[in-house]
Amino acid sequence: MVNNFCSVPLWKCSARLSAVAMGNEKADLVITNARLINVCTREIIEDAQVAVAYGRIAMVGDCSKCIGENTKVVDAENNYLAPAFLDGHIHVESSMLSVGEYAKVTMPHGTAGIFMDPHEICNVLGLDGVKYMLEDAKRAPLKTMLTTPSCVPAVPGFEDTGATIGPEDVAETMKWDECVGLGEMMNFPGIIYSDERTHAIVGETLKAGKTVTGHYSVPETENGLNAYIAAGIRCCHESTREIDALAKMRLGMYAMFREGSAWHDLKELAPALTKRNVDSRFACLISDDTHPHTLKKYGHLDHIVKRAIEEGIDPLTAIQMVTINVAQCFSLDHELGSITPSKCADMVIISDLNECKVEKTFIDGKLVAENGKTVVEIKDYVYPAKAINTVHMAKITEDDLKVKAEGVSADVRTIEIIPEKTTTYERIVNMPIENGEIKSDVKNDLLKMAVFERHNNTGKHAFGFVKGFGIKSGALAQTVAHDAHNLSVIGTNDKDMVIAVNALIECGGGLVAVKDGKIIGKVPLPIAGLISDKSLEETDALVSSLETAWKEVGCKHPSPFMTMGIIPLACLPELRLTDRGLVDCRTFKFVDLIAESHK
Amino acid sequence: MVNNFCSVPLWKCSARLSAVAMGNEKADLVITNARLINVCTREIIEDAQVAVAYGRIAMVGDCSKCIGENTKVVDAENNYLAPAFLDGHIHVESSMLSVGEYAKVTMPHGTAGIFMDPHEICNVLGLDGVKYMLEDAKRAPLKTMLTTPSCVPAVPGFEDTGATIGPEDVAETMKWDECVGLGEMMNFPGIIYSDERTHAIVGETLKAGKTVTGHYSVPETENGLNAYIAAGIRCCHESTREIDALAKMRLGMYAMFREGSAWHDLKELAPALTKRNVDSRFACLISDDTHPHTLKKYGHLDHIVKRAIEEGIDPLTAIQMVTINVAQCFSLDHELGSITPSKCADMVIISDLNECKVEKTFIDGKLVAENGKTVVEIKDYVYPAKAINTVHMAKITEDDLKVKAEGVSADVRTIEIIPEKTTTYERIVNMPIENGEIKSDVKNDLLKMAVFERHNNTGKHAFGFVKGFGIKSGALAQTVAHDAHNLSVIGTNDKDMVIAVNALIECGGGLVAVKDGKIIGKVPLPIAGLISDKSLEETDALVSSLETAWKEVGCKHPSPFMTMGIIPLACLPELRLTDRGLVDCRTFKFVDLIAESHK
Predict the structure, then answer these.
(1) Which residue is closest to B52 within chain A, CA to CA?
(2) What ipTM is given for this predicted complex?
(3) Cis peptide preceding A43, ω within 30 of 0
(4) Best mutation target, A251, A274, A275, A316, to test chain B (most B CBs within 10 A)
(5) No. of H helices and E strands in chain A?
(6) Is A334 strand, coil or helix?
(7) Phi and psi dihedrals of A543, rounded to 5?
(8) Which of A60, A98, A145, B427 could bridge to A180 as Cys pair (CB 3.0-4.6 Å)?
(9) Rounded distance, CA A500 to CA A185, Å?
């Protein structure tokens, strides 16, 4: 595929680049004294030199002939030099940061490129939202490759969104320079049960010769997985068991080992590589979702590489998993992912390989970050008004929150969450009915949850009960609720829940915690109700104060908002709650909240 | 890149293919009881089953649900099942066979696809010749991928050809469905010294997002090789030393290990993989040139895989080198090169892995060959008249062959050949001058050679002397003379040389051996003076009788015509003879035949 993410296309500079390699012209940059991590042969080449011109690698070897008086020479001081990192699957919205700010934050961690699936904003604003994020991305050197959101809504018929994406939209985006493929095809039922429209969405991508990325999240690796891959879906980041990742690699699918903020799969998946001597070319490391706190405290792919090494993956293999393997997945390895002649000069200097400690990051041959800081200017970008005003619903009262029921008690279909995992379990629990109403049962950690449609003021909403958050008082609410991003709220009492919901309506969306009638933490996310207009530091400070708040309400989990935010995601097992109701994701059918009433 | 070489594009059948994997529709073919060679993970999967529909793999695993009453079930009888083989670089003309006949011959050896660089016919007939070969190819299921000849003439200014190819021609062919890239860029001086036209030829390919294939044949792996790869050239089959192949792989270039009829590089190159534990994904096995005798006696890629195993390369790695690695080189791995869902069902059943004994070959799910025979009908194809009448020169007399010189003796620049290698050496040899003429010196094995322009009747010709053929009497002549394919002749005496040359003019080109005034062997190659219109068996019988003939004239080499045929190839080291004169390929300058005269 043609690479539109370099400073100069190769065909415009190849003659000059060859001249630099020959020493007939001089390089812009030469890095000396490096321990080169060769991801092509999986070797360390000692005492390496690399010459760069026109933003590309001209020469790897003895570059003395390439050095002229205007050549900048950087002594790597016997540190490692590796290709800069590529994140094969990321929703930038999960960071709550604008793309420019996200770039500013991740480049010091060695990230040179991301394969961005902006399906969060697309659910709210459609392709306009996607365009805004691409505009936003242009202000930073980070290569931001678009994979067009494929599932808007995520699971059609089960939720209300601000937009829909069809095959014709996908076909249109395939013409965009920024587009390298299709975002995660979460509608795996549509694929495996041969829904024509779902296959047409994939088909428009295949016709364009671009890459279809996947999302196959069920623990079934036989007919279903085969049927899914047979559609031409090339990668998947939804493995949670060693056998899932192994089955995918064996079936020629790139298994993207995920280590995100709210789901940590590496421990389970690493044995797919470490327990046996398999070719690892089909394995990648990706983040998927990264909360601002994770970015600030742990970093990005550098952290994930470190984690992979901790889990026993060979360091060079781990580096391949964030460089050449990702580039090959997207058929961009002729331009990205290795330090070899002609490629974009995207490189990192690493001082400690096992810790994956990044000292300097170069993109297109330019130093963009060092010592943990971005050193290039990132200009401002202001999102258009349409992107700022996206919470379209009327304020609610306590009446809107009543879960009405008849009888003495009811066997209720409750959702049990697992902290740091995407999966939920359905648990049928007998709950009392008081005054014709089922209420949160704090003692048994059974909390009421409501999801309100917030895009088109339809008034649609639905209720559920969730177990596992451990909240003792108050309420949490957010407009980040995958993937439809309707307004969701969990609480111990209706009063606090109302305050939480209405606070978000007022501020244009975000996250909020309420206790005893007071807002005790709030992260405004004015851009689409998903993204902050502030820096990482400011956003993280707000999130930190929210963390204090969620501890104050009694929750002990590391990221309750992330876990809560995917309860409406009706393409993950087992039981989910959208604005339309409870969805059994094993059968893809709506189910009643009450399994059985007892008179 | 979009694959135009399948029976049904994936986007037209993906929904149906998924249905087959789910068992909701039935497969056309299921292979059971196979030891699957998984080239993705480099493993053998025991007791595997594979379901096929629409010419593609639907399912790998327990395929019982996919079997219906119309499903053909093939029991692999615990034999190996591997992806069918891809030859990443081949000039079909070297087989002297039409493409249809070549397909018929190679499919029983497991070949499913070839990346064909038809630069021989292109030198004679231009893009018309290329089109004829593509038409010819259509009559067989073998996937014939075109890489557009990049160097016609091979080294501009040093030879006369029947056509020239420029950047605009390359741009035109990039629009063709059959075209996947650019053929071997032999003009490495043009690349490394930044010739704009040469880079433009590469550039038109890069712009189209297709693959540029290479030819870097000098033993220099520093600035020159870097400068060459910096131009975006992705693979090269011209390594002759372990270090060449290793340097290329380290620089992100696919090193294509060659084992052709006239040059056997595997023994020298295999240690690049066997001596160290490097990632082998950048290594391929290719044939480049295959004489009919080799095809008949040894086979094609099956033989090369066997040879690789003999040289110590792990059998699964060797299979990867003719399947997934080749597909990745051409960015076609999403469609070809592995037995995984969605891919074209190109498969081989192998009974003995170390011998690489192919029992059955399937292409697009159809059995095309078994027990050494092609079992599908290959229709006839008749090349147009323009392709048949291509020897445009007047008959010669003995006067045309005199190498005039003054003095008693001369220090002559002679060409020493190395049997089975592409390299030649320049040897300055003192030769006597008799009656103002230098003649062949049979005793010292110094034979006169002449090359005559044969495309446009210009009368151009040049002389040299060659050492190493060991011919004792008679003459050999051919119109197969890389890459300009002018008419070349070697002989011990002028009389036999004249007979040989004129015989070829009469029959429209081919190969001929003459002794004592009589034609003792002749292979007519009426198509472009390069290709037979006969079957492999008939062509090989003619070549065999020619072999008897060349032994009769005293030559003991396995393929003297192949070796002779590349003496005019002025992009290989060291000394070469074209119709314009002797070329020093170290300096790329014409040099005089006589280095110094002695009075």
Answers:
(1) A230
(2) 0.93
(3) no
(4) A251
(5) 18, 29
(6) coil
(7) -65, -40
(8) A145
(9) 33
